[in-house]
Amino acid sequence: MSDDELGDLIRAARPGTTSRHDPVPPHALRVLEEIMADERPHRAARRGSRRRRLVPLIGSGFAVLMVAVTVVALSLFNHAPAVAATPPLLQVTPVSGSASQLLAQLGDKRREASGATSTAVRGQAVIRFTQWALATNIGEDGEIESSQVEPTLWETAFQDDGSIHKRLTVAEPFPGDKTEELAEPGTLIDETVLEPGTDEYEQSYLPPEPPTDPDEVGAYLASLWAYESEPTLGEYFNEVVNILNNRIVTAEQEAAILTFLSRHPALQVDGRTTDRLGRPALVFRATDWQPGLWEELLIVSPDTGQILAAETIWVGDDRTDIASPSVSQYFAWERTD
């Protein structure tokens, strides 16, 4: 890979000045895979190589690039087992109705709500979510050595004085996880305070204000995408994750996003489930991002139309560290109207 190509990849990752503990933006995963494959950016589905050596899902865009170069894991992890435990797949009950109809109806429900969707902690507006993400260690021979993860709880609090407090702690493990290898839940991993008047948050994290017109959502989401190719539905799902991780959206904005996604011909519905935080939900699926390797889930409340969670599922056949299918990442937001 030439210096120019590497420079293009780094710029595409939009690393900014993020902390190494920030959740990786979905677009950075594609950049990382391109670096590991030593190829110029293309739609991954068009590439001939079947070897997928690494998709770690922890760290900022810049940290992900550093993982690709140095092949390291977070210091809180203990020695990882050869085969990683992953969360159980969601248990789903089929539902009647097409994916398009069901998600459009949820968009209508969301539109009926009012106000911002956020969690109030200590009287402040807060973005709060749990993340589980697989971190994979690669040996010098390019083979997977081990995979490990710590569940994490993220809080971004927007204070009255204009400062922004970002806090990362160890979350409760999923049922069946190897708890003896994990830090105690509540352990502080990282804490950052952005002082009032600085534009660091906007430059490094904050997506632009989402539109409220469904007809404008496609162009908006595409503008967040770092490549010239038209985003797939799975990539649209990933950009929605990026938005909800970093911005408090209104019900009207969220309704516009759901309505736009409901019109996509690749949209599928799995059925009803209970999400990782014990909430009833409907599961929608996208299989058009790296078909045969990854599938993306968007998990929505059937009662309010609020987006509750998102998951990434590995469905490939060339990894030895996890089974197929396996959950490789999930986000579960705690939000109130």
Task: Report the C-alpha radius of gyration, rounded.
Answer: 19 Å
Global geometry: globular
| SSE series | HHHHEEEEEEEHHHHEEEEE
Number of domains: 1
Q: Tally of extended strands?
A: 12
Regions with little confidence, pLDDT below 50 for 5+ residues: 1-22, 24-82
Structural class: alpha+beta
Ends: how far apart? Answer: 48 Å
Top keywords for this entry?
337 residues, alpha+beta, ten-stranded antiparallel β-sheet, two-stranded antiparallel sheet
Describe this structure in words.
The N terminus is likely disordered. The radius of gyration is 19 Å and the shape is globular. The chain contains eight helices and twelve strands. By secondary structure, the protein is of the alpha+beta class. Helix content is 26%, strand content 24%. The longest helix is centred in the first third of the chain and has 14 residues. The protein has one domain. Strands 1, 2, 5, 6, 7, 8, 9, 10, 11 and 12 form a ten-stranded antiparallel β-sheet that branches. Strands 3-4 form a two-stranded antiparallel sheet. A hairpin with a 5-residue loop joins β8 and β9. Keywords: Membrane, Transmembrane, Transmembrane helix. It comes from Microbacterium marinilacus.
In short:
This protein has helices at residues 3-13, 26-37, 61-70, 99-112, 200-204, 214-224, 233-246, 251-262; strands at residues 119-121, 124-133, 135-138, 144-148, 152-158, 164-170, 188-194, 268-274, 280-286, 294-300, 307-314, 326-333. With 337 residues, it is of the alpha+beta class.
